[in-house]
């Protein structure tokens, strides 16, 4: 029997493009062939999107996630009501509260085994902070709700998995974290994450920190002090990892298939390349280190184009399909 996981899909910030890109994605029959998609959010918001954009979709509400009739053409929604009148494209505390509530419900459902995986739409960090969240983003929040001590951000772009060893930190704080133990621990964890995804002996490309990966110590000592000893230790443990590679050339090596995965040291070094290539290569984000699969997009709420019918849903579709495909692999490994 073909496995069809139930994927919980949050609509994100109600005033952003999340509701739109989720609804547009549900117009693709491929989604229903590969999973049972459960939309988590406010029914009125979803109906408003469908009406505004004139989408050929019906809506039904359910609390019985395992026995619902997931049919193409009808959105199956787990209603999480919001109690305010939202305005599309406007930053507001209530939008932050709503986005948080949708995430809380998705994690509650996956913990109760009522869904198998989670795919989240864009949220706005400022709105969630206004609403009282102590976390810098949705990833950190989900990790806390899931009791995950050390989550990782993995971007799958084309056939390459890209790891950001530090994420939402000021650059000076990100650099100060990089030492021997940090590198060894994070790269070891990245290898385990890749194995959980299904790559059993991944070829890993390691980015340097400094220009030209330090140029033999002329442009910084970190590569010689930390990176080279860590690489030596990892290779002795059987990890297939490169020497430090200059960050300005590592992506072409990853995209060309020379490496299965790339280890990038900080947020912007990774995201400049990722965003440049997002129109050329299928792109979505995986959160490693969780007890379930969570995927999301590599872009924000785009308030400026919300509810105008022009938001590109490609990454949302890829994130949802990715959540299903990785979950199917995991279920097959444990016998469904």
Please characterize this protein's 3D structure.
The chain has about 325 residues and is an alpha/beta fold. It folds into two domains: about 1-150 and about 290-335, 3-Layer(aba) Sandwich (Isopropylmalate Dehydrogenase); about 150-285, Isopropylmalate Dehydrogenase (3-Layer(aba) Sandwich). It is built from twelve helices and twelve strands. It has helices spanning about 20-25, 30-35, 45-55, 95-110, 125-130, 140-145, 170-175, 180-195, 220-235, 245-255, 265-275, 315-335, and strands spanning about 5-10, 35-40, 60, 75-80, 115-120, 150-155, 160-165, 205, 240-245, 260-265, 285-290, 295. Strands 3-4-2-1-5-12-11-6-7-10-8-9 form a twelve-stranded mixed sheet, with helices on both faces. A hairpin with a 2-residue loop joins strand 6 and strand 7 (about 160-165). Helix 8 (about 180-195) packs across helix 9. The relative contact order is 0.17. The model has no long low-confidence stretch (mean pLDDT about 95).
SSE inventory with pairings:
Blueprint: E1 6-10, H1 18-25, H2 29-34, E2 36-41, H3 43-53, E3 58-61, E4 74-79, H4 93-111, E5 117-120, H5 125-130, H6 138-145, E6 152-157, E7 160-164, H7 171-177, H8 180-197, E8 203-207, H9 222-236, E9 240-245, H10 247-255, E10 261-264, H11 267-277, E11 283-288, E12 293-296, H12 314-333
Parallel strand pairs: 1-2, 1-5, 2-4, 3-4, 5-12, 7-10, 8-9, 8-10
Antiparallel strand pairs: 6-7, 6-11, 11-12
Helix pairs in contact: 8-9
């Amino acid at each position: 029997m073909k496995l069809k996981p139930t994927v919980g899909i949050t609509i994100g910030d109600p005033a952003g493009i999340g509701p739109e890109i989720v609804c547009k994605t549900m117009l693709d029959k491929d989604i229903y062939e590969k999973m049972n998609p459960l939309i988590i959010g406010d029914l009125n918001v979803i109906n408003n999107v469908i009406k505004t954009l004139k989408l050929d979709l019906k809506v039904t509400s359910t609390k019985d996630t395992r026995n619902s009739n997931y049919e193409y053409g009808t959105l199956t929604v787990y209603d999480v009501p919001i109690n305010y009148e939202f305005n599309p494209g406007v930053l507001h505390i209530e939008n932050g509260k709503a986005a948080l509530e949708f995430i809380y419900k998705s994690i509650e459902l996956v913990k109760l085994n009522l869904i198998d995986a989670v795919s989240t739409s864009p949220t706005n960090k400022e709105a969630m902070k206004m609403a009282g969240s102590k976390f810098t983003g949705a990833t950190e929040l989900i990790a806390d709700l899931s009791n995950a001590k050390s989550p990782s951000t993995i971007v799958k772009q084309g056939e390459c998995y890209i790891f950001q060893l530090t994420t939402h930190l000021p650059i000076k704080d990100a650099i100060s974290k990089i030492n021997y133990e940090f590198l060894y621990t994070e790269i070891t964890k990245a290898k385990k994450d890749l194995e959980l995804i299904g790559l059993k002996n991944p070829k890993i490309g390691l980015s340097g920190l400094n220009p030209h990966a330090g140029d033999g110590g002329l442009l910084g000592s970190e590569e010689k002090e930390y990176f080279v000893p860590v690489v030596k230790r990892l290779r002795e443990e059987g990890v297939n990892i490169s020497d430090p590679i200059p960050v300005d050339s590592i992506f072409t090596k990853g995209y060309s298939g020379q490496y299965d995965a790339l280890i990038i040291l900080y947020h912007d070094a990774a995201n400049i390349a990722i965003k440049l290539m997002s129109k050329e290569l299928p792109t979505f984000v995986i959160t490693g280190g969780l007890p379930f699969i969570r995927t999301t997009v590599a872009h924000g709420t785009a308030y400026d184009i919300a509810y105008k019918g022009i938001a590109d849903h490609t990454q949302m579709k890829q994130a949802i399909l990715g959540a299903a495909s990785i979950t199917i692999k995991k279920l097959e490994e444990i016998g469904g």
